[in-house]
Amino acid sequence: MSSIETAGHDNAHASFDTRPIWRTFWILLGITLFELTLATIHIKTDGRFPPKLMLNGVYLILTCAKAFYIIAEFMHLRHEIKNMIMTIAIPACLFIWFIVAFLWDGSSYNQLRNRYDRHYAEKVLAPKEAPAENPAKP
Amino acid sequence: MAQAVPAGQKWWSGGKSPFNVEYGKLMMWYFLMSDSFTFGAFLISYGSIRFATNGWPNPNEVFKAFPFFGEANMPLVFVSLMTFILIMSSVTMVLAVASGHSGDQKKVTFYMILTILGGFAFLGCQAWEWSHLHGEGAWWGRNPFHNADGTVATTNFTNFFFTITGFHGFHVFSGVIINIIMLIKNLRGDFARKGHYLMIEKAGLYWHFVDLVWVFVFTCFYLL
Hints:
The structure holds two protein chains of two kinds. By secondary structure, chain A is mainly α. Chain A has two domains: 1-92; 95-138, no CATH class. Chain A is 83% helix and 0% strand. The longest helix of chain A has 27 residues, at 18-44. Chain B is mostly helical. Chain B contains seven helices and no strands. Chain B is globular and about 65 Å long. Chain B starts with 22 loop residues before the first helix and ends with a helix. Classes of the chains: A mainly alpha, B mainly alpha. Chains A and B meet through helix 1, helix 2, helix 3, helix 4 and helix 5 of A and helix 1, helix 3 and helix 7 of B.
């Protein structure tokens, strides 16, 4: 047992250098500031630029980048044995299904309800369409 | 880089450490993975409900306050400060781990104290934000904010916000407690006597995970 511990200790000892920590810190800070800059531009232009959908896509990519740097460098996972990385990374792939399935389900529910909910159709959708519909229905 | 494993050796027959990681540290990783699914379930149910709802409050309208600035319209500023505090305390935590590797007990103490202060600063910010929103009439089951398009919003927004930031805040709180215990053990010289600071590393993994979750909470509630 003690030999195992010292082995791990020596290994990490060799690769532990404080420069990557600060580099990671600056990357994380830079990404966050970039996100805030985009958000500020979006607010100042009253939501015209960048378009909300594009902005959200950029946020999600940058969030994943930040997550990668925290896991790989701060949590030191990048420097572990590959098989161990895989025991973490492969189960985490479940998130792909998890996110796709549930967001899909949510939006499907939304569309169905908007189509079949009489109250919503009459009170929310009808007033907008009213001028066009009135002449057609005597 | 990932280390290469020599082929032809029976790594899994017992008595060896195939991953070359101490048991407790490996189990901390697996605990964190399961915890990430707990947070994932929360955030994805939030996303699912948001996709299933026609209108949603604009976060830039809701989270625009900053302490001592009264009614000033400062969207995202306060939450950026909170993010910075948490990233910074993550850095001091890695520095504590790095000092542990070189066996520098005094430096470990120093960086652990900074990390704990960062944790308290974050919790203080969150307490202020919660009490500010509560003062505006927001709480579980009560939502004073209208949707971005002006229609009346459901209480889903506040329910999810308080539940998820609350659960995250609880993690930060327990992380601070764990860090304080590690600081006390370090001051007593427990790790110096053992000859390694692996416990600091395990506490560090937990602390970074809290930072990791915040990155997602930040995106989901304040940016999207």
